[in-house]
């Protein structure tokens, strides 16, 4: 049979398009960046066997070569800089960043952290090193409420206030995750969910008993805010809440986090938390039942091996379905797609970051600025500070923490060849024309032998750097010199340091002594304050702490840090450590004696507030309280003021004494003014109603208090609220 010429031409044309058609078919949906992420995830999941799916549910995710899935280690830390991964910029510890009351600065910091993270990831992948601490999924920030000063890990938090914690935590997340509409720069994690603030020694087994009101108003507030602001991941805590381990807690992980708040990211366990379910909590008989319960409750990724080793057995026993495993896997794969793991790297705006993006001059400069703003001036008798470096002929820098690295870097830190300790910072600033001496002075134990006191007596001024270090307080296991599993037994500084300060005072007589305290929380300042003319709380200030201290001591910068937690007079004034009720805790519910109130911090200058536009007399739920004030610098040098806005509530049972609802840091030149606008949504004044199990706006008379600490009232403005 003959074929017509036109038919033959048609067939030849069709055949010419066949390679293009076949190539289009070969482009798998999950590898096609033009497809929606959910479609790509669904396609990839459909191609995996059950064994392959389960192999991806642990933090040491296995490779699936046939589908181009590389091995990946999810465990990375970045509390105040990329941690445990070699060279990185080391910023002040988180509690110090909270003391800045500067969320914009913290966002700049976390933007730098994610830049360095991307660079280090790119460099590691180029060497095919897909190892722990070199990835892009960071288990930071820690937004637990620092409810008790004994907690060693309180240094990792943003303090005792839910609003400050939520604001700083949200800023950190935004900088970490970036603002690209398509790709995450890095993945942030809100931890530890929930009601987790020590004791460290029993964290794997303790049961936090808390009612709905404290749970909602205090312990969940910051988590809800970070979810609203798009945090990619949430980490479940080790402990139980009201009898149920967090990592199998359906009420928290599913009902509240996903259904009520609409969380779309993935949930990871704290490391070994699933093992704790059956080994220490003894809630379930073994790992198979735990694997099933965890996935059913809402866990997606396991920082151990329980899911990888026992999820298949749970399916075989009928405790779990493959569809439920698909749900967990889909959520962690979605994060990987958002990070660009399955795309051509050149499509990602962060693919070219390299070694020059790590620990460069701009990053170091921001670390110095952060340290400057984090330090809190607690005492300055007779305005002894700032010292005049131009007339100073000699200085002594002394103390166990003056030349050490640990008190600079805190816990969960990177490494740097440019850590500037306090001795180095002071010496460099004063230069070769000033005599600077250094001595260890004392250690953390010996209460008899001291050094350098005679030399200090020969100097015109002395800086004594004392306090704690991360080996005395921190995470269980890491703080190996702690006498209580990482926590503090008391607020006391080491007895050796107190005796040393007494001896130093005797030697220096009427010469200035500036005490610099390193610690991650409240310590007993009163014990050493009589022997010092000035006291500076330096926290763990990061790699530029020495330079920042010099900037403050010699007046290049006015101190502007404010305490993110209450400094109590004594632990006898607060409830038992294991008590998770908020009554009698933090400035929100505490009326007892204190050394320094929440929000406190001195300056070298003074500020005056003047009302421009006051609030209305009456408000309803959908309104916003708006007030404008003028802040005037009435002192003799430029400085930053932190305007803090507190709400005092109607006299109703279990209302807070007062509560921070917004704050604003402003820079004001000597003699100058700045206008500050205060805006507080009335919805933020709602409290949890135990009878209806919902938020309620209580009608009544309220007061807006503006000042520079929770105990300061520069302006007090009353208003009423109706439903």
UniProtKB/TrEMBL annotation:
GO terms for biological process: arabinan catabolic process; xylan catabolic process. Keywords: Glycosidase, Hydrolase, Signal. GO terms for molecular function: alpha-L-arabinofuranosidase activity; beta-glucosidase activity; xylan 1,4-beta-xylosidase activity. Its EC number is 3.2.1.21. Residues 641-710 form the Fibronectin type III-like domain. SMART domains: Fn3_like. It is an enzyme of class 3 (hydrolase). Signal peptide: none annotated. Belongs to the glycosyl hydrolase 3 family. This is Beta-glucosidase.
């Amino acid at each position: 049979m003959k074929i017509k010429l036109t038919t033959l031409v048609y067939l030849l044309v069709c055949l010419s398009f066949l390679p293009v058609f076949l190539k289009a078919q070969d482009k798998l949906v999950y590898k096609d960046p033009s497809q929606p992420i959910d479609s790509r995830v669904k396609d990839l999941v459909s191609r995996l066997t059950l064994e392959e799916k389960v192999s991806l549910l642990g933090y040491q995710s296995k490779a699936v070569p046939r589908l181009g899935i590389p091995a990946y280690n999810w465990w990375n830390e970045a509390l105040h800089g990329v941690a445990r991964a070699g060279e990185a910029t080391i910023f002040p510890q988180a509690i110090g960043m909270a003391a800045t009351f500067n969320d914009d600065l913290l966002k700049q910091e976390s933007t730098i952290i994610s830049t360095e993270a991307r660079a280090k990831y790119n460099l590691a992948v180029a060497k095919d090193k897909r190892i722990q601490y070199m990835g892009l999924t960071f288990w930071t920030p820690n937004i637990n409420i620092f409810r008790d000063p004994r907690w060693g890990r309180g240094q990792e938090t943003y303090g005792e206030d839910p609003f400050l914690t939520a604001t700083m935590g949200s800023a950190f997340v935004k900088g970490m995750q970036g603002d690209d509409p398509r790709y995450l720069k890095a993945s942030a994690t809100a931890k530890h969910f929930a009601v987790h603030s020590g004791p460290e020694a029993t964290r794997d087994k303790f049961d936090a008993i808390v009612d709905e009101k404290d749970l909602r108003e205090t312990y969940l507030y910051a988590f809800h805010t970070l979810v609203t602001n798009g945090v990619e991941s949430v980490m479940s805590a080790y402990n139980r809440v009201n009898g149920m381990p967090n990592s199998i807690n359906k009420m928290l992980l599913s009902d509240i986090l996903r259904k009520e708040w609409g969380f779309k990211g993935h949930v990871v366990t704290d490391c070994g938390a699933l093992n704790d379910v059956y080994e220490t909590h003894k809630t379930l008989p073994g790992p198979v039942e735990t694997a099933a319960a965890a996935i059913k409750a809402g866990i997606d990724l396991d920082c151990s091996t329980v899911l990888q080793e026992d999820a298949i057995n749970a399916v075989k026993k009928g405790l779990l379905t493959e569809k439920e495993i698909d749900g967990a896997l889909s959520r962690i794969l979605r994060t990987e797609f958002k990070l660009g793991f399955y795309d051509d790297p050149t499509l990602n705006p962060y693919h070219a970051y390299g070694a020059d993006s790590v620990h460069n001059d701009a990053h170091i400069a921001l670390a110095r600025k952060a340290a400057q703003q984090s330090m809190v001036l607690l005492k300055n008798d007779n305005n002894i500070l700032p010292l005049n470096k131009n007339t100073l002929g000699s200085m002594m820098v002394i103390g166990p923490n003056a030349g050490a690295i640990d008190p600079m870097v805190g816990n969960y830190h990177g490494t740097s060849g440019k850590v500037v300790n306090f001795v180095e910072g002071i010496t460099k600033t004063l230069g070769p024309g000033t005599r600077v001496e250094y001595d260890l002075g004392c250690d953390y134990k010996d209460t008899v032998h001291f050094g350098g006191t005679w030399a200090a007596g020969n100097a015109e001024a002395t800086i004594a750097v004392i306090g704690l270090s991360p080996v005395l307080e921190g995470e269980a296991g890491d703080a190996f010199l702690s006498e209580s599993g990482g926590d503090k037994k008391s607020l006391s500084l080491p007895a050796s340091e107190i005796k040393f300060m007494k001896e130093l005072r005797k030697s220096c007589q009427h010469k200035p002594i500036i005490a610099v305290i390193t610690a991650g929380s409240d310590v007993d300042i009163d014990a050493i304050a009589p022997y010092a003319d000035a006291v500076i709380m330096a926290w763990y200030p990061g790699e530029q702490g020495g330079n920042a201290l010099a900037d403050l001591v010699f007046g290049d910068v006015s101190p502007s840090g404010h305490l993110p937690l209450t400094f109590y007079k004594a632990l006898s004034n607060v409830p038992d450590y294991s008590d998770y009720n908020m009554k009698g805790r933090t400035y929100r519910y505490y009326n007892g004696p204190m050394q320094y109130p929440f929000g406190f911090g001195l300056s070298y200058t003074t500020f005056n507030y003047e009302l421009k536009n006051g609030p209305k007399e009456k408000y309803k739920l959908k309104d916003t309280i708006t007030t404008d004030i003028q802040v005037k610098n009435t002192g003799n040098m430029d400085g930053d003021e932190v305007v803090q806005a507190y709400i005092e509530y109607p006299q109703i049972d279990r209302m807070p004494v007062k509560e921070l609802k917004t704050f604003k840091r402003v820079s004001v030149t000597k003699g100058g003014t700045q206008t500050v606008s205060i805006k507080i949504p009335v919805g933020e004044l709602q409290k949890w109603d135990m009878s209806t199990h919902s938020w309620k706006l209580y009608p009544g008379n309220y007061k807006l208090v503006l000042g520079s600490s929770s105990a300061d009232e520069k302006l007090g403005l009353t208003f009423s609220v109706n439903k």
